[in-house]
Amino acid sequence: MNTTVTPAEQRYLDELLKAMRGPCVETIPRDSYLLPEFAQEFRATLLVYHYFLKAPLGTSSFEAAFVRASRAAGRMVSPARDGGRFWDVDIDGRKISLKSTAPKTISKDLLHISKLCEAAWIQDVRGAQQREEATKRLFSEYTGAVDSIVMLRLFRKSSKYEMIEIPTSIFGQVADVPRVHFSADGPTIKVPVESSVPDFRVKLDRSDAKITIAGIRRSVCRVLGTWQLDPTVELEAPPPNEG
């Protein structure tokens, strides 16, 4: 193997090393389960994307970075098989769904999951009873299969990344939604239905046959870590349909 570094390779390496040493203010809350080894590995990926590639960390890249950082921290990691439903990776026996979002505008206090999962039956069911039964069955299966959702949010204007955990236990409240709220063909249902400040809203999207979760209150979630990067770096537009 030729170990001689060409001038082009050296320039590449110099730029990459400079990116990995770019400014970053990392905050890991005390109640976070992220280990220092995880944070160090994950931070390196963020720095490469932000300062070298000048691109946000999309969902597929986030999944790879999360798995790599978990392994660096000594976790037992088992990615889901291709075509697996609901979850993306098993970390020490916990099934986790990974999401990433980097829209132009983003709420600090409310989270949005554009596609929790596919649900082809949405386009076929008719009537409140069928819709209620299918929805509650799906959420029962989802909460039984997935322990938590870990979302990476990029606040583009400030170049701040936030990793936040959404406990799937909150979706258990869907079982208590009265049938009347399933009357519309593509209903949007606040949960709990009687609350003036719901924990989240469930949308049955007929056009794309998917479940959307909107308006998830940040206060029912747990922040795992934040990374403040240089906001003067201009990033490329994020891939479509993230989150």
Overall tally of domains: 1
Q: What helical percentage do the residues reach?
A: 25-40%
* Sequence stretches where pLDDT stays below 50 over 5 or more residues: none
Q: What structural class results from the helix and strand content?
A: alpha+beta
Strand order of the largest sheet: 1-11-7-6-4-3-2
Number of helices: 4
Q: What sort of overall outline do the alpha carbons produce when their principal axes are compared? A: elongated
* Major beta sheet summary: 7 strands, mixed
Strand content: 25-35%
Mean pLDDT: 93
Counting DSSP E segments of at least 2 residues, the number of strands comes to 11
N→C terminal distance? 42 Å
Write the layout of secondary structure elements.
Blueprint: H1 7-20, E1 25-27, H2 36-53, H3 59-72, E2 77-79, E3 89-91, E4 94-101, E5 110-118, H4 128-145, E6 148-155, E7 160-167, E8 188-191, E9 200-205, E10 210-217, E11 222-228
Parallel strand pairs: 4-6
Antiparallel strand pairs: 1-11, 2-3, 3-4, 5-10, 6-7, 7-11, 8-9, 9-10
Helix pairs in contact: 1-2, 2-3
Organism: Neorhizobium galegae bv. officinalis
Protein name: Type-2 restriction enzyme SmaI
InterPro entries: SmaI
Structure keywords:
single chain; 243 residues; alpha+beta; 7-stranded mixed beta sheet; 4-stranded antiparallel beta sheet; 26% helix; SmaI
